[in-house]
């Protein structure tokens, strides 16, 4: 979930996405809570102030796939700017604080705040690239590779570029649902990653993910 460092230093979207501006509100979601559903009216864009959100897509046959996981500083539901219906469902993975903004409010910011417009466009491009990679993973890659990529996406590397913490409420059952496999297989892969030094558990069960885990994407 890395951001473009230049725009992150020069502009913080929280300056304009306060939850108090015209067309804005702040919402709280508990882990597992549905934020929006695929097929619902696309009447808002969400900015993630805190927490993690997973995006899922249900096919015509009823099969569900996790397309992406979004974190702090990212947007959900940007298709609302051009589409009438939600293309994905969004669910809180952890406790979340989101700023909800109407399409009109976002368009107004794009017109009036050039720094916001630059940051927003770059964010959309980055999200598009990640979503395409995730779909490719689901279609072609092993469960082990999908788990490695998901752990790298979920980990917070902002304090230390070489390692990051998983959100405390992420458990193996949730990871299994995200990558489309069983909990027992996730447990097996996690044990393998730990023996290889790619992840680490402390005595409270919190998980540290090392960037070296990306090696598993090439080796597995």
**Number of separate structural domains:** 2
Please summarize the sheet with the most strands: 4 strands, antiparallel
What is the averaged pLDDT score?
A: 86
Indicate the CATH topology of the largest domain.
Answer: Jelly Rolls
The H-level CATH homologous superfamily of the largest domain, spelled out, is Jelly Rolls
Low-confidence stretches: 1-9
At the first level of CATH, the class of the largest domain is Mainly Beta
Secondary-structure element order, as H and E?
A: HEEEEEEEEHHHEHHEEH
Annotation keywords:
220 residues; alpha+beta; Jelly Rolls; Arc Repressor Mutant, subunit A; 2 domains; four-stranded antiparallel beta sheet; 7 helices; 37% helix; globular; disordered N terminus
Folded structure, characterized:
With 220 residues, this protein is an alpha+beta fold. The chain folds into two domains: 5-139, Jelly Rolls (Sandwich), CATH 2.60.120.10; 142-219, Orthogonal Bundle (Arc Repressor Mutant, subunit A). The chain has helices at 5-10, 103-112, 114-140, 143-154, 172-179, 183-195, 214-219; strands at residues 24-29, 34-36, 45-50, 53-58, 64-70, 75-76, 89-92, 96-101, 163-165, 199-201, 207-210. The strands form three sheets. A four-stranded antiparallel beta sheet has the order 1-8-3-6. It has a four-stranded antiparallel beta sheet with strand order 2-7-4-5. It has a three-stranded antiparallel beta sheet with strand order 9-11-10. A hairpin with a 5-residue loop joins strand 10 and strand 11. Helix 2 (103-112) crosses helix 3 (114-140) and helix 4 (143-154) packs across helix 5. The longest helix is centred in the middle third of the chain and has 27 residues, at 114-140.
